[in-house]
Write a structure and sequence with these properties.
The chain has three helices and ten strands. By secondary structure, the protein is α/β, with parallel strands linked by helices. The chain binds inosinic acid and magnesium ion.
């Protein structure tokens, strides 16, 4: 069985955009240190590439969340599956996420993390689907706005596959059906 994948954003464009975001962050945080919080698993490829492009000192931590949803969107009920290893207190935090879709996950998570007393907290996302927004989220650093299509690559999966693709692609599943997002989904 082979899913058909068409390129939406080529590798070169993704890499160039990450370099650009890295330069912006380096400038904005000049004289400071940044603490990147990568949301597993989808954010991991983006977070690593971004970290390599930031010239101020960087520390990294990881969090994994899961959300309960139906076929088309997450419910906003978020469970922390893996919490951070390090304290965020007094740190200049940037949350690094693969994609903001309904917005529900980050709408829930940001206030929770703010309670842990970081010096500041910003959100950086590689992709954004504005047409799907259901809960308000402010994205401080964004790669690309994309149309309402199910995408894979650069950390994003379809049934845990295709995270390793070096570009952003649109997947047309073999079955011709929309990807299922029922029950608890690990982001
Ligand atoms: P939301 O913003 O709470 O709806 O959830 C965003 C999460 O849903 C992302 O972190 C992804 O894990 C997942 N997601 C949303 N859209 C896509 C997509 O097009 N491809 C792969 N995962 C997606
Ligand atoms: Mg995710």
């Amino acid at each position: 069985m082979a899913d058909k994948i068409s390129v939406l954003i080529p590798e070169e464009a993704v890499d160039a955009k990450i370099k650009e975001i890295g330069e912006r962050i380096s400038k904005d945080y000049e004289g400071k240190e940044v603490h990147l919080i990568c949301i597993l698993k989808g954010g991991v490829f983006f977070a690593c590439e971004l970290a390599k492009r930031i010239t101020v000192p960087v520390s990294l931590d990881f969090m994994q969340v899961s959300s309960y949803g139906n076929a088309t969107s997450s419910s906003g009920i978020v469970r922390i599956k893996k919490d951070l290893d390090d304290s965020m207190e007094g740190k200049e935090v940037i949350i690094v996420e693969d994609i903001i879709d309904s917005g529900r996950t980050l709408h829930y998570l940001i206030p929770v993390l703010k309670q842990r007393n970081p010096a500041s907290i910003k959100l950086c996302a590689l992709l954004n689907k504005p047409d799907r927004r259901e809960a308000e989220v402010q994205i401080d650093y964004l790669g690309f706005d994309i149309p309402d299509e199910f995408v894979v690559g650069y950390g994003l999966d379809y049934a845990q596959k295709y995270r390793n693709l070096p570009f952003i692609g649109v997947v047309e599943p073999d079955t011709g059906e929309e990807p299922e997002r029922k029950g608890e989904t690990v982001e």
